[in-house]
TrEMBL record:
<protein>
    <recommendedName>
        <fullName>WD repeat-containing protein 75 second beta-propeller domain-containing protein</fullName>
    </recommendedName>
</protein>
<keyword id="KW-0853">WD repeat</keyword>
<keyword id="KW-0677">Repeat</keyword>
<keyword id="KW-0804">Transcription</keyword>
<feature type="compositionally biased region" description="Acidic residues">
    <location>
        <begin position="695"/>
        <end position="710"/>
    </location>
</feature>
<dbReference type="Pfam" id="PF23769">
    <property type="entry name" value="Beta-prop_WDR75_2nd"/>
</dbReference>
<keyword id="KW-0539">Nucleus</keyword>
<dbReference type="InterPro" id="IPR053826">
    <property type="entry name" value="WDR75"/>
</dbReference>
<dbReference type="InterPro" id="IPR036322">
    <property type="entry name" value="WD40_repeat_dom_sf"/>
</dbReference>
<feature type="repeat" description="WD">
    <location>
        <begin position="53"/>
        <end position="95"/>
    </location>
</feature>
<dbReference type="GO" id="GO:2000234">
    <property type="term" value="P:positive regulation of rRNA processing"/>
</dbReference>
<dbReference type="GO" id="GO:0045943">
    <property type="term" value="P:positive regulation of transcription by RNA polymerase I"/>
</dbReference>
<dbReference type="InterPro" id="IPR015943">
    <property type="entry name" value="WD40/YVTN_repeat-like_dom_sf"/>
</dbReference>
<feature type="domain" description="WD repeat-containing protein 75 second beta-propeller">
    <location>
        <begin position="289"/>
        <end position="609"/>
    </location>
</feature>
<dbReference type="Pfam" id="PF23869">
    <property type="entry name" value="Beta-prop_WDR75_1st"/>
</dbReference>
<keyword id="KW-0698">rRNA processing</keyword>
<dbReference type="GO" id="GO:0006364">
    <property type="term" value="P:rRNA processing"/>
</dbReference>
Length: 757
């Protein structure tokens, strides 16, 4: 987390869960894995994340169960610390510092942080890949060593038999070798197992040593019988290439990590029982970073041929949308369809996708697909497929915001030198609506790079290399062209609300702003802007600039010369994608410097994870627990005269109850009885209130009777005078008469004493 005044950069999800071997607990109930700067604890039955063990300030590099206590786990990190956790309660127990690739002895101490003094070197010249190291019985170690005789025989992974003097090694040629008698210098022997057609990426023996598990790019888990290597079982079609294999201590569960950031839990190589899917970033993100207007999920291309809908609030994949609708074959060098572009309309009713495939001896295969959201299935359904929409790669596409007089439009630009407008046509007979090409245009043979609609849909800007053209979508007339300093424009955004007269673009070295009323360059500044995004709910824009190995963030309004917010080195490396996401509820109690975050949140993607620009007030708000009756029982809402004191006590009670280990809390029956009693209405109190109300009614009735008697005892002259007087004034209502009687009973003696003094 990086702090900058009231603004914080928060790692909100999307970290790799396949970075290192996962760990299964002894009772097979939980699975632990390294995930960025944290250790995640998952349930093997529900796939839900139970805890996140946070405390490291660097990438977590390893997770290991403590042999002497099965409820504790060690974690190592690039921050130079080794931490001991109670993973069932998510509590940090101890921190050890100053360790390298050595054996570390943590001294017995009551302090949470200790310095490890006893260090002993184990290996030297070890490959940094953990698959290159294995520990066998008698703490024998094996280390990675390349075979100099041939590259195809290079060692890729190693595993030690738990009981026998046997070492299994995987190689790049797809072979597995079992080494024996290696205690003798020149008398070692080995046998060869071969099924994999490519590199063996992971090996693992079962706890009893009866089976050997192997995996590779084929995404097939192979189970070999030890000493009966001709007998083997297969579990195919597990997804991406297998990178790690783990077995539970009791041997009941197998676990495979995959290249598509997924962990598969398997019941003894028989069937898949659970799948834990992380955010898939792959080698490159071809689509833009988008937010689904309906589900508020992060959307980008995921596993091959799919779009992934990922919840950042839960840090969990919601679902995959199969775009290509073809079985993906995991084979290196095989060209297959990939999703390269995607765009939503403002309401989330339509989704446009582009898929392409390059063949060595054939032309580019290209498909444009339009998907309609189905209210019944709550998913997108394919509506229209347009084969070969352009003659070359599509460079950009965007939807137009429809108004009452406009139909939904989609514009696509291509390297063939044309941009096309696709219009949603009215349904014919019983068929539903479909998409047709409405307009095609070009500009002096230049290649269009990007396009953008204005907020009201009245203007379309298309960039042809160094020239920005502005069109009218209603007539498809070229309105004007905008000039700029030399350099191709790579990004384009219209201003919004009060800044709608501005159009902004970026080049390799400049940020440009045009005034559309004067058709001239309003201002320009020299900076290397890698991403330019506009907030859909305000005039604000965010520019991510790369320099000196890190990325700077600037938030500004096109109409003002100075930025609203700037943050140097918001992250190391480059920001690949960014997006503003509208908030469900407007954020309040922000400082002036962070008011640009009131309506929207800013997310950006790096090579490691998804980050969020957040405020300190928002972080405190997110720490609160949901308003349930049980939460109210803890004293969150006490008497208002003790508001300040009670808020502190309620927060203490809340954290104490929800974060304290269960074995030191009061019994469940005691807590439940308190909870039930708080919901009940006391019978005695209800009876007392009823009796009190009846007494008041009787007293009022007696007063009315006595007053009527007094009125009847008046003399006739008095009654006549009173009648003459009352004839001039309106009659009192029953409520007014009752209030008058109440006032008569008041004691005004204090006023007489005041007048006498």
């Amino acid at each position: 987390m990086v702090e900058h005044g009231d603004i914080r950069v928060v790692h909100c999800g999307g970290s790799k869960i396949n970075f290192r071997d996962p760990v299964i607990t002894h009772d097979s109930r939980f699975l632990l894995c390294a995930s960025g700067e944290a250790v995640k604890v998952f349930s093997t039955s529900t796939e839900e994340c139970i805890h996140e063990l946070r405390g490291h300030t660097g990438l977590v590099t390893g997770v290991l169960l403590r042999p002497s206590n099965h409820l504790q786990v060690y974690s190592s990190s690039l921050d130079g610390t080794l931490r001991l956790w109670d993973f069932t309660d998510g509590i940090l127990i101890k921190v050890g510092q100053r360790f390298q690739l050595v054996a570390v002895h943590l001294p017995q101490s009551g302090d949470q942080m200790v310095e490890a003094q006893e260090l002993s070197a184990v290996l030297s010249g070890v490959n940094p890949n953990p698959a290159a190291i294995a520990f066998g019985r008698g703490v024998r170690t094996c280390r990675h060593k390349d075979n100099k005789k041939g590259g195809w025989n290079t060692f890729t992974c190693v595993a030690c038999h738990p009981k026998d003097d046997c070492i299994a090694t995987g190689h790049e040629d797809g072979k597995i070798r079992l080494w024996r008698n290696f205690n003798h210098k020149k008398e070692y022997t080995y046998s060869t197992l071969h099924w994999h057609h490519s590199t063996v990426s992971s090996l693992c023996f079962t706890p009893e040593g009866t089976n050997l598990l192997s995996g590779g790019v084929e995404s097939v888990l192979v189970q070999w019988r030890y000493n009966q290597e001709s007998e083997r079982d297969f579990l195919p079609r597990l997804g991406g290439a297998i990178t790690h294999i783990t077995v539970s201590p009791d041997g009941s569960l197998f676990c495979t990590s995959h290249s598509d950031n997924k962990i598969t839990i398997i019941q003894s190589c028989v069937k898949v029982s659970a799948v834990i899917q992380g955010l898939v970033k792959g080698d490159s993100i071809r689509t833009d970073l988008m937010m689904d207007p309906r589900s508020k999920a992060l959307v980008l291309n995921g596993k091959p041929g799919h779009l992934q809908f990922y919840s950042l609030q839960r840090d969990k994949l919601l679902y995959n949308l199969d775009i290509v609708q073809q079985e993906y074959i995991h084979e290196s060098g095989l060209q297959q369809f990939e999703v390269v572009k995607a765009a939503f309309d403002a309401s989330g009713s339509w989704l446009a996708t582009v898929e392409e495939r390059h063949q060595k001896a054939a032309e580019l295969e290209l498909n444009l697909k339009l998907w309609a959201f189905d209210e019944q299935t709550q998913s997108f359904v394919l509506n229209t497929t347009i084969s070969a929409p352009h003659d070359a790669q599509i460079t950009a596409m965007c939807f137009c915001q429809p108004t009452d007089s406009q139909t939904t439009l989609l514009v696509s630009t291509s390297k063939d030198g044309h941009f096309k407008a696709w219009q949603l046509a009215a349904p014919a007979h019983t068929e539903g609506p479909s998409w047709l090409c409405d307009f095609v245009s070009a500009y002096h043979g230049l290649v269009p790079e990007c396009c953008s609609f204005s907020a009201d849909g009245s203007l379309l800007a298309v960039v042809f290399q160094e020239v920005v053209t502005v069109w009218s979508p209603s007539t498809w007339e070229l309105l004007t062209t905008l000039s700029q300093p030399p350099g191709a424009v790579s990004d384009l955004c219209f201003g919004r609300l009060s800044c709608s007269k501005y159009l902004l673009g970026t080049t390799a070295s400049n940020l440009l702003c045009w005034n559309l009323l004067t058709c001239s360059l309003e201002w320009t500044t020299s900076m290397d802007v890698r991403r330019l995004v506009a907030d859909p709910l305000s005039e604000n824009m965010a520019a991510f600039c790369y320099q000196s190995g890190s990325t700077d963030l600037f938030v500004f309004k096109p109409s003002e010369p100075r930025p609203l917010f700037s943050h140097k080195a918001v992250c190391s490396g480059k920001v690949t994608q960014a997006v503003f996401a509208p908030r469900e509820e407007m954020l309040e109690s922000c400082e002036e410097s962070s008011q640009w975050l009131n309506r929207s949140q800013l997310y950006f993607l790096t090579q490691q994870m998804v980050n969020n620009i957040s405020t300190s007030a928002e972080e405190k708000q997110n720490e609160n627990v949901a308003m349930t009756p049980f939460y109210l029982l803890l004293g969150k809402h006490r008497q208002q005269q003790q508001e300040h004191q009670d808020s502190d006590s309620s927060l203490w009670a809340e954290r104490t109850l929800l974060q304290t280990p269960a074995h030191v809390l009061p019994s469940t029956s005691y807590l439940c009885s308190m909870f039930v009693q708080s919901l009940l209405i006391s019978v005695s109190d209800a009876r007392e209130e009823k009796a009190h109300a009846e007494e008041e009614m009787e007293s009022e009735k007696e007063e009315e009777d006595s007053e009527e008697e007094m009125e009847s005892s008046r003399s006739k002259p008095e009654l006549a005078a009173a009648a003459a007087t009352e004839s001039d004034t309106p009659a009192l209502t029953k409520a007014q008469a009752r209030e008058l009687r109440r006032v008569r009973k008041l004691d005004h003696s204090w006023l007489a004493g005041l007048l006498d003094s």
